[in-house]
Design brief:
86 residues; alpha+beta; two-stranded antiparallel sheet; 64% helix; 16% strand; septation; cell division; Cell_div_ZapA-like
């Protein structure tokens, strides 16, 4: 894919600016950054003594946990749909 189809967006996550480059729309990139920022702030409010590195790791762990749960739910729904169709 050529570079001219990539979006370069500067976002703020937990008080730091990051330049994100990707093929998704600018609004999608901003939404992802906003969700990461929200999750970091949520975890930080419950654990104010965490340094940024540990906070980032906990945010990643929480996010992957949520992803796996949703993936499992989708798989279960697909199996149920297949049973209903058969």
């Amino acid at each position: 894919m050529s570079d001219d189809k990539k979006n370069r967006i500067t976002v703020d996550i937990f008080g730091q600016q990051y330049t994100i480059v990707g093929t998704e729309s600018s609004s999608h990139i901003r939404l992802v950054a906003s969700m990461v920022d929200d999750k970091m702030r949520e975890i930080s409010s419950k654990n104010p003594s965490l340094d940024t590195g540990k906070l980032a790791v906990l945010t990643a762990v929480n996010t992957v946990h949520d992803y796996i749960k949703l993936k499992d739910q989708i798989n279960q729904l697909e199996l149920e749909l297949k049973r209903v169709k058969d």
